[in-house]
Design goal:
Chain lengths: 234, 534
């Protein structure tokens, strides 16, 4: 009898917790992502109208900002990072939620994609960044050219490459490559480790691929990052 | 003009200071967002923006505002400048002048200081210079004049937060003040009291100061895609007046539903109140106290409070009392569909005043008097009054909006009645009036928003008086507009300058033309206007 009571208590506690998570999600996230997590909330269209990004459709299980290899689901820490930082221009920081509420929001959004139940996402390893000086940037310029970054981001990194106008995201909306002059607008973060993570994991759902295979030398990646950072408008 | 200079000076200062900033208006800068996060089309709010506003200018659900760390941040993240208006107008009239056109310098400019101050308290201050408030000068002529100063100025306080009823949130500000954003402090703050899905939802919030109650209505007055166009006060037609004195050729082109709707009424303090001028609950700013919050899984927004929209004289404000209550039901949260329906009840005690002729006892003729005292005649066309009466008014109405994807639809219907009309005016004063405004906006492309608005008013008040010609007391206006958002804070890769810039081309057509009455004299008005904010 005590065991049954204990199990009931655990069940009730879990249900209460689930309700709290849903409440947090509904009050903080559903305006854009929708109550069913399909990215079709009442404010979804006006975020960027006929262009990408629109609010994420959690039911598709594709996430841009991950520390995991391309095609994998993000870790809880990835989701928390996005929630806490926000996405420049498009999603505010929800740092104003309590730590508990932020975790509940993550818990709620993971329910929209069943794959999270069995997923064991493994973050990629990000080595410590070396000194990103002018010499590294000069080497990075060559990496930039060899890897074909200019096709989308342009020769001067202004997001105006030859392919830029034709780029579409996975739902067919036009998407603009990042303009490296304005790092504060990088959606995945602008610190060296953020750029490294973006380069090796790619941005799933966008034309930005993972360069983990194409540039398998970490030093070359850091050089490329040094070059990208050197393009910042002074 | 001094205010304009101050505004321009502030503008230059703001441009100069935030060199490395995301140069978006204050909330956008503070929360690092493009306009579209909160606005379906500036200044129209989307559902997220409405909740942002209700939550004290913070993202919905959040309690702790990100506070500016430096003075530089405090300036750029709390201050904004917005200037807007028409710089070209062409209007056609059925009577002389038959048409006229010209360029003008839009002088409508506002400086805002706004944002959350603490977890419980936010501030909103708008210093405004506007032109063409219509009034009657000492000669009895209608004139448009400059006004300025504090427009909205209020504190918004989250009462449960203020009194510590949010279960643990009082410490949560440490979260963002002290830690690296990459490594959030793992604190269990609990506290979903403000966000519960049960009977009690959000709030109550209280706004104190010069408030704008209709901001919570389904169709808010101050978030129009069509600019308010002032009344056309021109040289009098056929009365021998010069340009120095004026008649009203066309009433202000405001949403009719929110207008005062009565002819020949005045606000306290003898300021005229034209039928299309927003009044009562729909006044854009008035001293008052407003309570609002949410119930029933946050689907119902309740609002009650009072304003005192009277005269500039401070003591007169105690004479006028305008209580109101409003309920709004929000629906829809799937497929981008959402909307709301609002009902309003609004009473205005001594809100209006009417002047009229009444019998005056003849002056006594004293023995030995050579001739009786002589009163000079009134100026032609302006009449002579010797009686006045305060009027109470009751307004009831319904409004709604429906939004889905690129479509935004809004409507409001208001029914007004005045009381305490003097017996002397029996048969000459219609004490009931109605107004309807309906609008459809469509986001045609990323930057283009065509809009269509229909206004209808069946006005009350004097059926015929010495100020306005006898004529129709009904009016219908159809307004069409194409608004081009050149920058909307979301094309930052191409436009490093932080800004909102919108250009609008508008045509308003009088569907009930006829006579020289201000409802009928004009035929068509075309405007080129702009909005610039940073």
């Amino acid at each position: 009898m005590r065991v049954v009571a204990a199990l009931l208590l655990v069940l009730v506690t879990r249900l209460a917790s689930a309700d709290e998570a849903t409440a947090v999600y509904n009050h903080a996230c559903s305006w854009c992502h929708g109550q069913d997590g399909r990215g079709d909330g009442p404010a979804a269209f006006s975020i960027n109208k006929y262009r990408s990004p629109r609010p994420r459709d959690f039911t598709r299980g594709r996430f841009k900002f991950r520390s995991t290899p391309s095609g994998q689901l993000p870790t809880d820490e990835d989701l928390l990072r996005t929630l806490e930082r926000g996405i420049p221009g498009y999603m505010p920081s929800f740092q104003g939620l309590t730590a508990k509420e932020r975790r509940q929001a993550v818990e709620a959004l993971k329910r929209f994609f069943p794959g999270f139940e069995s997923a064991r996402p493994t973050p990629v390893t990000i080595p410590d960044p070396p000194v990103l000086d002018a010499e590294a940037a000069a080497r990075g310029r060559q990496v930039y050219e060899d890897a074909g970054c200019a096709a989308c981001h342009g020769d001067r990194g202004r997001g105006d490459g030859g392919s830029a106008a034709a780029l579409r995201d996975d739902v067919g909306l036009p998407i603009q490559p990042a303009d490296f002059r304005y790092p504060s607008r990088f959606k995945g973060g602008s610190k060296p480790v953020d750029l490294y993570r973006t380069l090796v994991t790619g941005l799933d759902g966008t034309p930005m691929p993972s360069y983990a295979s194409a540039i398998d030398d970490p030093h070359a990646l850091w050089d490329l990052i040094a070059y990208i950072r050197s393009l910042k408008r002074r | 003009m001094a205010v304009v200079r101050v505004v321009v000076g502030f503008s230059l200062l703001l441009v100069a200071v935030p060199r490395d900033a995301r140069a978006l208006p204050a909330f956008a800068r503070r929360f690092n967002l493009a306009c579209g996060a909160c606005h379906s089309a500036v200044p129209r709010l989307n559902a997220f923006g409405e909740r942002f506003h209700e939550n004290g200018f913070k993202p919905p659900g959040t309690m702790e505002p990100p506070l500016p760390a430096t003075w530089k941040e405090a300036i750029k993240d709390t201050m904004a400048v917005w200037t807007r208006g028409e710089f070209f107008e062409r209007s056609e009239f059925g009577t002389s002048p038959t048409s006229r056109q010209g360029f003008a310098v839009p002088e409508h400019a506002s400086v805002y200081v706004a944002g959350p101050l603490t977890a419980s308290t936010s501030v909103f201050l708008e210093l405004e210079n506007t032109v063409h408030e219509t009034d009657i000068n000492k000669h009895g002529d209608f004139v448009n004049s400059d006004t300025g100063g504090a427009q909205k100025a209020f504190l918004m306080v989250d009462l449960p937060m203020l009194f510590g009823l949010h279960g643990g949130h009082s410490m949560a500000h440490m979260d963002h003040m002290t830690m690296d954003p990459d490594h959030p402090m793992d604190m269990e703050m609990g506290g979903m009291a403000a966000m519960g899905d049960g009977l009690v939802g959000h709030g109550p919030m209280v706004m104190i100061g010069r408030v704008d109650p209709s901001t919570n209505f389904s169709y808010p007055v101050d978030r129009q895609l069509f600019h308010d166009v002032p009344a056309d006060t021109s040289e009098a037609v056929g009365s021998g007046k010069t340009a120095a004195g004026g008649m009203v050729l066309r009433f202000a082109l405001n949403p009719y539903a929110f207008g005062a709707k009565f002819f020949g009424i005045f606000k306290r303090g003898d300021h005229t109140l034209l039928p299309t001028e927003p009044a009562l609950y729909h006044t854009e700013s008035a001293p008052g106290v407003d309570f609002h919050g949410r119930l029933f899984a946050s689907k119902v927004l309740y609002q009650f409070g009072f304003t005192s929209d009277a005269a500039p004289e401070f003591t007169d404000r105690f004479h006028t009392f305008v209580p109101y209550t409003m309920l709004r039901y929000d629906f829809g949260d799937q497929d981008g569909l959402n909307g709301s329906v609002s009902i309003l009840g609004n009473y205005g005690r001594n809100a209006y005043k009417v002047f009229y002729l009444k019998p005056t006892p003849l002056p006594p003729i004293l023995p030995g008097t050579v001739s009786p005292r002589h009163t000079p005649p009134p100026p032609p066309g302006r009449g002579f009054v010797n009686g006045e009466q305060d009027l109470d008014v009751w307004r009831e109405g319904i409004g709604g909006n429906l939004r889905r994807g690129p479509w935004d639809m809004y409507t409001a219907y208001m029914y007004d009645q005045v009381f305490d009309v003097p017996d002397r005016l029996a048969g000459r004063f219609e004490r009931k009036a109605q107004g309807l405004t309906a609008e459809v906006d469509y986001r045609l492309t990323h930057s283009l928003v065509p809009s269509l608005r229909y206004d209808w008013m069946k006005a009350g008040g004097f059926k015929s008086d010495v100020i306005f010609e006898p004529g129709p007391r009904q009016s219908q206006v159809l307004s069409m507009q194409m608004r081009w958002y050149v920058f909307e804070g979301d094309n930052l890769a191409k436009v490093p300058a932080p800004a909102l810039l919108a250009v609008s081309l508008r045509d308003s057509v009088n569907l009930t033309p006829g006579g020289s009455h201000p409802f009928g004299a004009w035929r068509n008005s075309m405007f080129l206007g702009f909005d610039l904010a940073f």
